[in-house]
Structure formats: structure tokens, C-alpha cells
Design goal:
Elements (H helix, E strand, L loop, with lengths): L2 E5 L4 H12 L3 E6 L2 H15 L3 E5 L5 H13 L4 E6 L14 H29 L2 E6 L12 H20 L5 E7 L7 H5 L5 H4 L5 H14 L3 E3 L2 H12 L2 H11 L2
Parallel strand pairs: 1-2, 1-4, 2-3, 4-5, 5-6, 6-7
Length: 255
């Protein structure tokens, strides 16, 4: 049975994706740091949908965490047909005042980890001529983000990386999709320290709806999905707006 590997699966979007895959009778390998949450979700999904659910408690903010996940895939002899690179976090401050270790951990988790997992699992997908990669990018990836500079840059990487990958995979039977949500009702704003920012005060989308749209786009093999009419219009506006104005607006939304 096809297995889906989902990172950051203990809450938020990751948990919602796990529910969607389980509903469609796919086995799961759920990855996050909080093993208790993973085990509770695994038990719930296995009971409700009669699927096999494996869990790995790993800190993907380090290369060792990635190695742990890949070792578990090999130990369990799993054929990963779906890879959802969802784990990530943000932080807010002027960059010159930021905690460097935290910023570098963000780059590892948001950028290096999806690259490493995708590179490790993609060849077998291509060999089988079937597979889906879903990377969680962001509306943040379409613009510079003062006071969240590293986070915005990391999502720009994810957006561009996935679009390029989707092009390379044409004709292989494997697809890559990037989901680009705006503000979502998850743990992200609290962790990033921006729950009271203008951006999140303007309203948030339900995680379940964003996951549903991302899941549908991935299954359809679309290269990119932008969630919500407001965000779609915003992307078009960003393409024609002066870069300096875009940057100023983002700085205000992040404060």
C-alpha cells in the first residue's frame, strides 16, 4: 500500500494532511518532535480508517534528524509514494538582533530538510514512475519580509525549488506541488511571536481548508496552489507593484 511521509505532523497543517491521506486509505509515516502527539494521532487514524500508521520522533532542525527518518524508512522497508514537507517555523525581529542559532535552525528546517528528504526519496519514485511531492511554501515567498527576513527568504527558496522540480519531473509519472498559503490558524504565529501582528489580525484561514486544497492540487499534479481569492489577487499585485512599496507593506504587516 502507498505510504505518505508527512513532516511536522503533530499539529496544524501536518495533522490535517495526515487525516486526508488516512481517509483515502494510505498508510502513513508521521514525523515530528512531540512523540506523544504523534502516537495519539496515529492511534486515532489507524482506528478510524484501518490504515497502518508509523511514527518517528525526530528533530528535523538538524541533519541528524533527517538521517533518523530515512533510517526508519529503510528499516520498515516502506515505499514512500507521497512526501509532504510541512515542518517549518518562523521568528520575528530585526535580523541584526536575531538569535543566530535560531536563524540557522530555521534555514535547516525550512530549506535543507525538504531538499534532503526530497533528494533521498525522489529517485525511487521516479523508478516506480509514480509519486507526489508536496512542499509547504508560503505567500511570504513572493516578497521580501523585513523583521522576518530569514523566514521569508526560506519560503522563497521553497516556492522556486518546487516550481523548478515540477518542470524537471515532467513525463516521469512523479509530480511536485508547492502550497502557498497566507495566514493560517495554526501554532505558527505563536511560535514566531507574531500572533498580534497586523497580518494575523486581518484574519486567518482554517488549517483544514488549506490542507484540503493543497491535497487536491498535489493529487492533480499541479505545480502550485495559492489559497484564497485575496491571496491570488495579492500575487498578481506583487508582480506589478514597486519592490520598495511591497517591502514597506510587508514590514508593517510583520510588526
Amino acid at each position: 500500500m502507498a505510504t505518505a511521509l508527512i513532516t511536522g505532523a503533530s499539529a496544524g497543517l501536518g495533522a490535517e494532511y495526515a487525516k486526508l491521506f488516512a481517509h483515502d486509505k494510505h498508510d502513513l509515516l508521521l514525523v515530528a518532535r512531540r512523540r506523544d502527539r504523534l502516537e495519539a494521532l496515529a492511534a486515532e487514524l489507524a482506528r478510524a480508517h484501518a490504515v497502518r500508521v508509523y511514527v518517528v520522533d525526530a528533530d528535523l532542525g538538524s541533519a541528524a534528524g533527517v538521517e533518523k527518518v530515512l533510517a526508519e524508512v529503510e528499516r520498515l522497508t516502506l515505499d514512500i509514494e507521497f512526501l509532504v514537507n510541512n515542518a517549518g517555523f518562523g521568528s520575528t525581529s530585526a535580523f541584526a538582533e536575531a538569535d543566530l542559532a535560531r536563524e540557522l535552525e530555521m534555514v535547516q528546517l525550512n530549506v535543507a530538510t525538504p531538499v534532503a528528504l526530497t533528494r533521498a526519496l525522489l529517485p525511487s519514485m521516479i523508478a516506480r514512475k509514480r509519486g507526489r511531492v508536496l512542499n509547504i511554501g508560503s505567500m511570504a515567498g513572493f516578497q521580501p519580509g523585513p523583521f522576518m527576513a530569514t523566514y521569508y527568504a526560506s519560503k522563497a527558496f521553497v516556492n522556486c525549488f518546487t516550481e523548478a522540480l515540477a518542470f524537471e519531473l515532467r513525463g516521469t509519472g512523479v509530480t511536485a506541488t508547492v502550497s502557498c498559503p497566507g495566514a493560517i490558524a495554526t501554532e505558527f504565529p505563536k511560535v514566531a511571536g507574531i500572533e498580534n501582528s497586523r497580518l494575523f489580525q486581518m484574519g486567518v484561514a482554517p488549517a483544514s481548508e488549506v490542507a484540503r486544497q493543497g491535497y487536491a492540487a498535489m493529487m492533480a499534479g499541479k505545480a502550485m496552489v495559492i489559497h484564497g481569492l485575496k491571496n491570488k489577487l495579492a500575487v498578481q499585485a506583487l508582480r506589478v507593484s514597486p519592490r520598495a512599496a511591497v517591502t514597506r507593506i510587508a514590514s508593517k504587516l510583520n510588526r
